[in-house]
Amino acid sequence: MSMTTPDADAPLIERIKRGDVKAFEMLVVKYQRRIERLIGRMVRDTDLVQDIAQETFIRAYRAIPQFRGESAFYTWLYRIAVNAAKKALVEMKRDPIVTESARASRDEDDETSRVENELTNGETPEALLASKEIAATVNASIDALSEDLRQAITLREIEGLSYEEIAEVMNCPIGTVRSRIFRAREAIALKLRPLLDTREGDRW
Amino acid sequence: MSQSSEGSASMEGLSALVDGELGSDAGARACAQWREDPQARAQWHAYALIGDVMRSEDLASPVDRDCAFLARLRARLADEPVVLAPAELPAPVELPAVAVAAGGSRRGWRTPVAVAAGFVVVAGALVATSVPGSLPFGGNPATVAQSGAASAVAVAPSPLRAVSVAQDSEPVRLNGQLIRDARLDEYLSVHKKFGGSSAPGVPSGFLRNAAAEAPAR
Q1: How far is the CA of A181 from the CAs of A166, B13, B38, in angstroms?
Q2: Which pLDDT score is estimated for A91?
């Protein structure tokens, strides 16, 4: 993500290379949504999107000894996902690749195309509602943050800056940056909890 | 969310790990927490989801779906070999049983080999044809240690994974330490044909290299 900092996933990747499969699960939780969305833009078959996303992570896991950090992990994973989707499409002898114009119309903030887009990814209306609730809650929580916390988490998540860079921008110690980002996340997570935590965490 | 300040501090570590901003010791603790504490896993998911939603609202995904995805993948990962497990690396002095047996039998050949030069050619040919897999047939300690290390790179159930790893032509480094080097394997494999029991044929640098692997485990 960040153009200016080393890959944020490098520490987890080191652990995976030492045999820590749980560290790989952490990356799955981190990137699963993005990978599914990516594949959903190439493949219309809703079941296939999930299957290809699964295949993407399995392939990544098998290939991780060859990952040398020349690109960010997500860039590497992205390529694996695209190749897995292409391969699946060839195997299915279908032609569901979304054309550029179709993709452009999806990206418009038009309610109809938006619903269509999400429903093609296998969303039920209930799931769609839950998604909208989550998005609204995150946005409202960010608005409610103090300026320091909001700026810190925005510089990290939107701008992709490292803690060191954020410390320079905000003119504060790195430890303060770390604390502000954590506090921002905790404040948002607290609001999200009713939406995410209905079965008290044991599902994870 | 944890109530205690200790728990809060560890969640802060998890938050820093999301951003890749945690040292290796603290990172290890955060990963251990993730393994052991469902709350930590839920929190990790929340942090990742928050980042995704901040970047794009259409990444807001119901938690059930994310959970189901991971549960399904976990089942598949359970069938996958652990691709790298240096913790399983044998110490250089712990020669694999096969290598010991092979080395012993080759030492047994030495006497007749020394008696007749023609036997050297025959024995050399036998050795050369028996090592294409580059597994422990080398008679010198450095070669055996290196082969032992290579064999531990991939662990059961699929020995095929070892082959794919060995095809990597670049050295694999963790924390800046050399774990294995496919080029070195290739070099040793070629030189086994000539070296056999000839210890001076292998530069002492390789002996140091094999010993230096120990801390990487």
Answers
A1: 10, 11, 22
A2: 85
